[in-house]
Design goal:
single chain; 155 residues; alpha+beta; GMP Synthetase, Chain A, domain 3; 3-stranded mixed beta sheet; 6 helices; flat; disordered N terminus
Length: 155
């Protein structure tokens, strides 16, 4: 009795269809693209005035399941107009895609889009909330935060 193709183990898992966890291949390609994109940006070949003398960190590259498109998350070192920088990078995406084609060994170089990485802002906001006096009072009712230096036996 012949089994349908999906029953033979060639079908996609439920998590990849629903956009859940990314596959090992997506993660590997994303990391390779992140390194290559960082090298291309470090060369300073972009002529856009918003990108001249700007140091960028590419924090993550997320690749679609079919590896045809990629979203790069960037943050400028030392600040800057993040929205203008992202707009300039999206404008230069086709040029950067061509440069990436020379750097990575993929059958198809993915289409690039850029987004601002706001994870550092979110982490700073959470840290600020955790250090608020009301939160400290709730966590440490005695009013003295435990800095980890006291003896665990209370001596």
């Amino acid at each position: 009795m012949a089994l349908p193709r999906s029953a033979k183990g060639r079908g996609k898992s439920a998590s990849s269809k629903s956009g859940g966890a990314r596959s090992q291949r997506q993660l590997r390609v994303g990391e390779e693209l992140r390194h290559a994109l960082s090298q291309v940006l470090a060369r300073g070949e972009l002529r856009d005035p918003h990108l001249v003398d700007i140091s960028l960190t590419v924090t993550e590259v997320r690749v679609s399941p079919d590896l045809k498109s990629a979203t790069a998350f960037v943050v400028p070192l030392g600040g800057g107009d993040l929205e203008a920088i992202v707009a300039a990078l999206n404008h230069a995406a086709s040029f950067l895609r061509g440069q990436l084609g020379h750097e990575v060994q993929l059958r198809f170089t993915p289409r690039l889009s850029f987004q601002a990485d706001r994870s550092f802002d979110e982490a700073a906001h959470i840290n600020e909330i955790l250090h608020h006096p009301k939160v400290i009072r709730d966590v440490h009712p005695e009013g003295v935060p435990d800095d980890g230096e006291s003896d665990p036996d209370g001596q």
